[in-house]
Specification:
Blueprint: E1 2-6, E2 11-17, E3 23-30, H1 40-57, E4 66-71, H2 81-92, E5 97-101, H3 103-111, E6 116-121, E7 125-131, E8 134-139, H4 151-167, H5 174-183, H6 190-198, H7 203-207, H8 210-218, H9 222-246, E9 254-259, H10 266-279, E10 283-285, H11 292-303, H12 310-315
Parallel strand pairs: 1-4, 4-5, 6-9, 9-10
Antiparallel strand pairs: 1-2, 2-3, 6-7, 7-8
Helix pairs in contact: 1-2, 3-11, 4-8, 4-9, 5-8, 8-9, 9-10
Length: 317
C-alpha cells in the first residue's frame, strides 16, 4: 500500500494506492504552505489528512508500505528541513517515507516518472525535470518576487488592471464588472479592505481571483487576455531554461507536461503551447497522465523499489 501526499498553497491531497493500481482511499486537508503560519502547521495538516485517508480505506498508518510527501516550500529554508522531515514520522509512526518538494508530485504524475520536464502552475509556479537520474528545479521563488505565470501572479496583475480601470488609467473592460460582482463591494476602493483586512492577504484567496481574470478574458477583456498570454509565455520560459540546464541535446525529444489549475484557462495553455514551439522544435507536449497526488503514490512505490507494473498503471486511468 502506497501513500501519496501532494501539498499545495490551497489544499493538501492524500491518496492510497495498492499494488494493483487501485485507489483505495482519498482525503483532502488545508494548505500545507507554512511560510505564513509557521512550520508546525505541516504536522497538523498531515495528521488530519493521514487519519482521514486511512479511515476512508479502512487501514492504519502501519499498513502503509511506503509514502511520499510532496511539501510546498520544502528545501527552500535549510533550517526547516529537520522539522519537515520529522513531521511524517510523528504521524505515521514509522520511517517508511521520503519528503521532497511538491514539484516532484506534478512531474511524477504528469509524465509517469520518466525523463522530461513538468511545469506546475497553481497558486505558485515552477518546473521540475529529470534526465539520466539528475533533477533540476527552476522557478518557485515565491509570490513576492517570483512565481511568474502562477494563479497568484495572474490575480495580482488582474487586481492592478482593475485599479487602473477604476482610476481611468486603463479603458474599462469586462474585468472591472467581473471583479465588482465577485468582490460584492460597495465601492471599488473597498477592494483594499477586502484583500488586506478581511482576507488578511491570504495567498490562496488572492490566487483564486485568477478565475475571474480568465472569465473576463473569455468575455473579450484585452487586459485580462494579455495577462493570461504573458503567463503562458513565462511558463514556457521556465521549461526552456530547465531543458538547457538538464543538457538535453539539440536533437533530443524532450517530453513536457503540465499540472495545476492555471492551465484550466484555455488562453494560458494556448500561449504556453505556442511559446514552447517557438523556443525549441524538439518539445513533445503531453497531456498529464495522472494527477499530482497519484504521481506522489507512484513515486512512493518507485522509492520503495517496487514500482507499479504496466497493468497496475493502466488500472489508474
Amino acid at each position: 500500500m502506497f501513500l501519496g501526499v501532494d501539498g499545495g498553497g490551497t489544499k493538501t491531497a492524500f491518496c492510497l494506492v495498492d499494488r494493483s493500481g487501485r485507489v483505495v482511499g482519498r482525503a483532502a486537508a488545508g494548505s500545507s504552505y507554512y511560510f505564513s503560519d509557521g512550520v508546525d502547521l505541516v504536522e497538523r495538516v498531515l495528521r488530519q489528512g493521514v487519519d482521514e485517508v486511512c479511515a476512508a480505506a479502512g487501514l492504519t498508518p502501519a499498513d502503509i508500505d511506503h509514502a511520499f510527501f510532496g511539501l510546498p516550500g520544502y528545501g527552500e529554508v535549510a533550517g526547516d528541513l529537520p522539522v519537515l522531515d520529522a513531521a511524517p514520522r510523528a504521524v505515521l509512526g514509522h520511517d517508511r517515507y521520503v519528503c521532497d518538494n511538491d514539484m516532484v508530485c506534478g512531474w511524477a504524475g504528469s509524465l509517469g516518472a520518466v525523463d522530461g520536464i513538468n511545469v506546475i502552475s497553481g497558486t505558485g509556479s515552477m518546473t521540475y525535470g529529470e534526465r539520466l537520474g539528475r533533477g533540476v528545479r527552476v522557478g518557485g521563488w515565491g509570490e513576492l518576487f517570483g512565481d511568474e505565470g502562477s494563479a497568484y501572479w495572474i490575480a495580482t496583475r488582474g487586481l492592478n488592471a482593475f485599479a487602473r480601470m477604476s482610476d481611468g488609467r486603463l479603458p474599462e473592460g469586462p474585468l472591472a464588472g467581473v471583479l465588482r460582482r465577485h468582490l460584492d463591494s460597495a465601492s471599488d476602493l473597498d477592494a483594499i479592505d477586502i484583500v488586506h483586512n478581511r482576507w488578511k492577504g491570504s495567498r490562496g484567496r488572492i490566487a483564486a481571483l485568477s478565475r475571474q481574470v480568465a472569465e473576463a478574458a473569455a468575455l473579450g477583456d484585452a487586459s485580462a487576455t494579455a495577462i493570461l498570454t504573458e503567463a503562458g509565455q513565462e511558463l514556457a520560459l521556465l521549461v526552456d531554461t530547465t531543458r538547457v540546464r538538464l543538457e538535453f541535446g539539440r536533437d533530443e525529444t524532450v517530453p513536457v507536461s503540465y499540472s495545476g489549475g492555471t492551465f484550466a484557462a484555455g488562453a494560458v495553455l494556448e500561449a504556453f503551447t505556442g511559446a514552447l514551439k517557438g523556443r525549441y522544435t524538439g518539445y513533445e507536449l503531453r497531456r498529464p497522465l495522472y494527477e499530482p497526488v497519484i504521481g506522489a503514490a507512484l513515486y512512493a512505490a518507485k522509492l520503495a523499489g517496487t514500482p507499479l507494473d504496466r497493468t497496475a498503471l493502466d488500472a489508474l486511468w
